[in-house]
Design goal:
Layout (H helix, E strand, L loop, with lengths): L2 H4 L4 H11 L1 H13 L4 H20 L16 E5 L4 H6 L6 H11 L9 E4 L7 H4 L6 H15 L3 E5 L1 H8 L5 H4 L4 E5 L2 E8 L2 H6 L4 H17 L1
Amino acid sequence: MSTKNSKNYSNESVKEYYHSTGLYDSIIYKKNKTNQNLSKEEIIESLLLKNKKLSNKVTGTNKKIILSNKNYKSKIMVLGDMPSQKDIDNNELFSDDSGELLTKMLGAISIDSSQVYLANIIPFYLTKEEGKNIKKYNSLLRKIVHEHISAINPETILLLGSFALQTLFGEEYSIAKNRGQWLSYSAANNSINIIPSFHPTFLIKQPSQKKKSWEDLQELQKKLNNA
């Protein structure tokens, strides 16, 4: 059909043409999908793809990704830095010694670790050499993490370690200075309560800091009890 002749067709004729070829329904579907709110599952699928691209940018390879423990309905998120190599091998987050300690830490304030949403800022393992590249992609990483938090929309986040803290709030923040303080984070049109504390991996290396970690956990318990 030439451009000249196409001018003689009415809108209904054009619709009939698209219907007959199957293109019309396809175009309408794509348009509606763009305008509708995506489901949580669709957002998670999108996040997986974005993290695969991030993995390629940072490491040059497709790293195995473990986004979370899939407790999507939990109102408590525990957000660490990245999975360990053992986590990757086991296909399970916090499956190493730090996970065992985290379970004990949460259990001490009557929280079942299997009932919270476990995730990391970076959902794939990085070697020390690969980790040197991550700062080049901080803005992209922050955007992906923000989408992740918005999708889950928890009421409270326990943030583990300085890397997780600085990714969300900036390099002027540190665990030494800000641990145990309640911070506000805006996502999904909500204000989310975040309390930073030591990562269990750090506590294993520095057990003398467990007392301060216990203080942070008590603050978390107090907040949850008053919610």
